[in-house]
Amino acid sequence: MRACVCAIVAAIGLAALPACAQAETGAAFWKKVQATCDAAAAKPPGELGKRIALTAIDEFSRFGGHQIDASGRIFRFGLTEAEHTEDDAGEPRAQLGQLGWWLVMKYWRSLFGTDAPDKIEVRGYRDAAGSTKDEETAEVLRSSAGELIRASESVADPEVREVLREAALRGAILDTPWSAAFISYVIRQAGAPDNAFRYSNAHRVYIYDAFAATAAEPNNEAGNRLYRACPLTTTKPRPGDMICQQREPTLVDMSDAAVRERIRDELAGGTETRSIRRTHCEVVAHVDAEARKVYTIGGNVNQAVTARKLNLRGRALKFSAMQKGHCGGAGQWTLPQPAAGAPHAAAHPQACSLNDRKWFVLLQVR
To answer: Which of 65, 67, 193, 333 could form a disulfide with 304 if both were Cys (CB 3.0 to 4.6 A apart)?
Structure first.
């Protein structure tokens, strides 16, 4: 839209171009957006936002995943995607809801139905099963859980056949990122209309859609999109909102504002360019105003559905993008290092807070 408007102005006369550029600067655009975001944040969360938050809490409780405190440390290590809650005695029966991989398959099925096994990838490494040399390199092999399940149908023993099916699914759960599938499951379970949210196995799909809603709102063209994109550190979060991070190695030094402008530019350009691809989002589940903390819940965080506690700033309860913990870090890491030249020698950890991430945008329920 921005490029199109400027092109029309340019056709009228070159003298008008600076005015066009000035009118469409990022600062002016985001100032208007901030006013819209602040007006919404001043209101109590709507019914759908509350249902999204409660659904995330319910699913976290059902999964029994990790809990991360405000310093960025896991203080409770819970169930993970590949594990189950059977005790060491080896019970002869297990409840399916206590199997991590089974719960994750539930999220995939909410996206793809019975086609889910064909949508998730299993990776192997050529001849790795028989190799005994750890320095040997191997070609990556790719298949899908569906292909492996169909291959298992030739096995005569029904119990072995079922174990092979489940092993295929469990392997795919380990090899295929599922955090966006979890978000899509939560939003759908909360009752959001199908045309209000871009259900996807990639966070960037609904991040870019929220930015598109923000750009369209001034002209009342956002439709019934569920989320708008708001500046993160200047917008008060509400239950049902989402916070998102980007993990692009080439953008590690780019400011949050610059990342948001890049997304806006790509949408305005009218192309399919999506350079902010490595992303992760979590649902705002609860805001503790008295403690100035916000709780978020996300999937595939340390291989689990995980709840984290984050810091808010001041009485305005704005999100603090810097979530650095005080847990010592490299300065207190005294584990002896391997001898020089030893394989896989580990460097000192550079950061200890699991909350210190490149959070850059808040997706606000409209």
So the answer is: 65
